[in-house]
Amino acid sequence: MAFRRCLAIGLVGLVLTAAVGGSLRAADPLEARAETFIASLADKAVQALTVEGAERAERVSRFRRLFNDHFAVHGIAKWVLGRYWRRASPDERGEYLILFEDMIVVSYVDRFASYTGEALAITKTVALNDESAMIYSEIVRPTGGPPVRVDWRVATEDGGLRIVDVVVEGTSMSTTLRSDFGSIIRREGGKVAGLLKVLRDKTKSLRQDLGK
Question: What one-character-per-residue DSSP string does 26-82 give?
């Protein structure tokens, strides 16, 4: 499915060790906070999600906690649904938010087992306004292959910072998901229920593994 492709692009940087590239010299407090936030996330991801011998249920729990602590999950999910959010019933909205989170988890929880020491090198950070910033970085491969550009957009939320988008080689996670979800809904006669069915099927294996 198309949204499986974009997810593979979108969160690739989450499991990488951070190597700060020097932009913390910037005087802007938001830029410094944003860069530290991303570097800390990379370190936490490796420590929490590459524990040898951890059961899948434990890895699922750790990933879900990391995702919710560092990403603006509700805001991203709502923006991705676009105009269809207004058309959805309260019950559909509630189920969609749960399924959106489960979709991210089921798509990525098993990818951490194949971590091979890639490093995230932060090259610069730029404040977009008083409340958001873009962190530019590259994934450095231990095999010596060409680096992959990964840009992180973060915004202030409840006194802290949250990731609102990840852009890999110019491809936005949020924008691609929005396009893919819209295509699914249009294919299903403009009904959000059609998207929910697709997401239920996508996350079925996760729920079975966890006994839900």
Answer: -S-HHHHHHHHHHHHHHHHHHHHH--TT--HHHHHHHHHHHHHHHB-HHHHHHHHHT
Give kind and range of the element (H or E) at residue 180: helix 173-187
Q: How many CA atoms lie within 13 A of 129 on its CB side?
A: 4
Query: What average pLDDT does range 141-161 have in this prediction?
Result: 86
Residue for token digits 């676009």?
82
Task: Assign domain 2-205 one CATH number from 3.30.980.10, 3.30.2350.10, 1.10.8.50, 3.10.450.710.
Answer: 3.10.450.710
**Where are the chain's structural domains?**
2-205
If phi > 0 it is left, if psi is from -120 to 50 it is alpha, else beta; for residue 163 that is beta
Position 49 scores a pLDDT of: 67
- The Cα 152–Cα 146 span in angstroms is 19
Q: How far apart are the first and last CA of the chain?
A: 24
The Cα 119–Cα 135 span in angstroms is 15
Reported confidence tier of residue 56, pLDDT bands at 50, 70, 90: confident
